Amino acid sequence: MIKNNKMVIGGISGLVFATLWMTIGFPKTIFVLLITVIAAWIGYLLDSYHVDLSRITDIFDQKN
């Protein structure tokens, strides 16, 4: 069992960040991280205000 979860999360985050930086460059990496943070924030807001997205999913689940 892993005792220190924050250390593992930090290590994995660092690996992902370094890989992105080396493959797509620094500005694009910052853009990807910014979009990820914004999407996580929107998800947090939708969850905290109990927004029901079932009507939207019903649109995509309709059969012709």
Broad shape:
extended
Low confidence ranges: none
Separate helix tally: 3
Total individual domains: 1
Strand content: under 5%
In round numbers, the mean pLDDT is 91
**Radius of gyration, CA atoms, in whole angstroms:** 18 Å
Structural class: mainly alpha
Helix content: over 70%
Largest sheet: none
- Cα separation of the termini: 50 Å
Please count the beta strands (DSSP E, at least 2 residues each): 0
H-E order:
HHH
InterPro entries: DUF2273 (IPR018730)
Protein name: DUF2273 domain-containing protein
Keywords: Membrane, Transmembrane, Transmembrane helix
Pfam families: DUF2273 (PF10031)
Describe this structure in words.
With 64 residues, the chain is an all-alpha fold. It has one domain (5-61). Helices cover 80% and strands 0% of the residues. It contains 3 helices and no strands. The protein has helices spanning 5-24, 26-48, 54-61. Helix 1 (5-24) crosses helix 2 (26-48). The longest helix has 23 residues, at 26-48. The protein is extended. The model has no long low-confidence stretch (mean pLDDT 91).
Which descriptors would you attach to this protein?
64 residues; transmembrane helix; mainly alpha; membrane; 80% helix; transmembrane
Q: What's the gist of this structure?
A:
It comes from Leuconostoc citreum. This protein is mainly α. It has helices spanning 5-24, 26-48, 54-61.
Question: What secondary-structure arrangement, pairings included, does this model have?
Answer:
Layout: H1 5-24, H2 26-48, H3 54-61
Helix pairs in contact: 1-2
